[in-house]
Write a structure and sequence with these properties.
The complex is a heterodimer of chains A (113) and B (111). Chain A has 113 residues and is mostly beta strands. Helices cover 0% and strands 49% of the residues of chain A. Chain A is built from no helices and 11 strands. In chain A, the strands form 2 sheets. In chain A, strands 2, 4, 5, 6, 9, 10 and 11 form a 7-stranded mixed sheet that branches. The model of chain A has no long low-confidence stretch (mean pLDDT 95). In chain B, the strands form 2 sheets. In chain B, strands 1, 3, 4, 8, 9 and 10 form a 6-stranded mixed sheet that branches. Chain B has a 4-stranded antiparallel sheet with strand order 2-7-6-5, with no helix packed on it. Classes of the chains: A mainly beta (113), B mainly beta (111).
Chain lengths: 113, 111
């Protein structure tokens, strides 16, 4: 596609529910990233995929967070048993490889009530 | 301009003036630096990047300066326009993939 696409743009859920956030990267980009941004802060790294595998998931805050990229293109970030503290903007980015420009999507604004 | 600190700094400039946004980074091993612009409700938009083997790079109306000695990065915007109003983030990496973002500087362009 022309740019990184993220769906939904907004997600409101209740505490304890499960959510999935989708990212469709730029066509041909092998590297995909998830970041989380709280209000007034810069984005924080969550996980990096090179192809289908998670090359670095050290930024995931705990085991309620999980991400997959089964075919090396679309990725899904999954959050179990959501907590109010999970409320944030979740950003996806892709690049043609490591150490190349990251292009970000418009994000999914997650609100946990 | 002001360096990134604990509170989001704000830079107010008049339309047509030049803007300078500063950023201090902490990791001397970082070798790739990027400036992003973020408008409200949108994702960060790539502006310009620079690698550690350079100290200056120019784009369209923008220039990035890198001073590795004092671990300082700056973004200069020439002839600032109202459309430049946004939050600007510097980001650095030594891993090649995990960007460390500063807190950002809010640029407000007044007519």
């Amino acid at each position: 596609g022309a740019g990184v696409s993220q769906t939904p743009s907004n997600k409101v859920t209740e505490k304890g529910k499960y959510v999935e956030l989708r990212c469709d990267p730029i066509s041909g980009h092998t590297a995909l990233y998830w970041y989380r941004q709280s209000l007034g802060q810069g984005p924080e790294f969550l996980i990096y995929f090179q192809g289908t595998g998670a090359a670095d998931d050290s930024g995931l805050p705990n085991d309620r967070f999980f991400a997959v990229r089964p075919e090396g293109s679309v990725s899904t970030l999954k959050i179990q048993r959501t907590e109010r503290g999970d409320s944030a903007m979740y950003l996806c980015a892709s690049s043609s490889g490591a150490n190349e420009k990251l292009f970000f999507g418009s994000g999914t604004q997650l609100s946990v009530l | 301009g002001e360096s990134v600190g604990l509170h989001l700094p704000t830079l107010s400039v008049q339309e047509g003036d030049n803007s300078i946004i500063n950023c201090a980074y902490s990791n001397s091993a970082s070798d790739y630096f990027i400036w992003y612009k973020q408008e409200s409700g949108k994702g960060p938009q790539f502006i310009i990047d620079i690698r550690s083997n350079m100290d200056k790079r120019q784009g369209q109306r923008v220039t990035v300066l890198l001073n590795k000695t004092v671990k300082h990065l700056s973004l200069q915007i020439a002839a600032t326009q109202p459309g430049d109003s946004a939050v600007y983030f510097c980001a650095e990496t030594f891993s090649g993939y995990a960007l460390n973002f500063g807190k950002g500087t809010s640029l407000l362009v007044t007519p």
